[in-house]
Amino acid sequence: MPATIVVGTQWGDEGKGKFTDLLAKEMSMVVRYQGGHNAGHTIVIDGEKFAIQLIPSGVFYDHITPVIGNGVVVDPFVLLKEMDMLSKRGINVSRLKLSGNAHLILPYHQELDALHERHLGKAKLGTTKRGIGPAYADKAMRVGIRVQDLLDENIFREKLHATLSHTNKVLTKVFNRLPLDPDQIADKVLSECLEGLQPHIADSVNIIHDALEAGQHVLFEGAQATFLDLDHGTYPFVTSSNPIAGGVCAGAGIGPKEITRVVGIAKAYVTRVGAGPFPSELFDEDGDRMVDIGREFGTNTGRRRRPGWFDAVMLRHAGRINGLTELAITKLDVLDTFDTIKMCVAYEIDGKRVEKLPYHQSELHRATPIYEEFPGWNTDMTSATEPNHLHPNAQAYLRALEDQVGIPVTLASTGPGRDQFIHWG
Q1: Catalytic, out of 13, 75, 149, 336
Q2: DSSP string covering 109-159, please?
Q3: Is the pLDDT of residue 111 over 90?
């Protein structure tokens, strides 16, 4: 039962979309298993950019069934807008399946998200204010509203009234806002979303298992990444779900024995968005060059990403948490013009060398990077298609990366285009 997982190994924005798109050629189904529209994938096809937030990357192949799993939180308006955008650009979205057990993001979730972030002041988390956290909170409190509820108007309205009876008290008494009308929300969602979504609502768990039992290849993709995981990330500067490979089991409804391959996606350097610790962060000209050359601005938010040198300590930890079988390295070409390239191989914490990620957040905040330096290659590698096309210094950098993290690199990206990559190792 060939199940493959693609997982981000840093703080997101590693370029998962490109390699998910690449691996999808071999697949029959691509399943999104967690997150919401707070993270985007950018796919470049024949020079044309497609930015998608909810729909799995496999939608670009006619032979693939794209599935939004039960672990995803879905803003119905955003999903329909994305489907419409793709349709207008010639992409067939008719095969899309949407789990009836996925939870909905509704307007009050977005309002609560923005109000909570504002209320935190200087301690804000850097949320995208898309309603992701409040939707997952409602799910955990068992007052969430699921996609399947749209199919029964009476249940949908009843649940909205029940949820807003509590939420309106928070809005009015805590944040001094006007209460929201559940019937107004219901009318808008049902009139604008139900017709477009209904043909796609399905039993995703059985669809996935039927494919696996038939020997079909199924690819599972998440949003965000390992160090934004709710349990294993740099809490509280994390997302509200579990992007790690183990999140597939809950977010798509499969058992661990089904998983045969876990591909970790890592950038040749590191970036993160929002607040939180970042030992190898750069505040100098090298960091600015990474941002400029790599176009390190959020797909959804446009926010400038924080840059830093590659951190092998993080990736060793990500390898353990996810059970990585291989690595795909992205944006190697961004380093083409650097004279010297650094790699964080350990931390110094309170005068001691530390080679494993500290579990205590205070220690991570105090960690300073210990670097190994490598000569740059000062060569444009965007046309490289074979390992021997890479400059010897770039080859040495990839080998050192493999040695440091103990996981083989199988793919390396040499540019943003769909075909700009090499098979390595």
Answers
A1: 13
A2: HHHHHHHHHHHHGGG------SSHHHHHHHHHTT---BGGGGG-HHHHHHH
A3: no
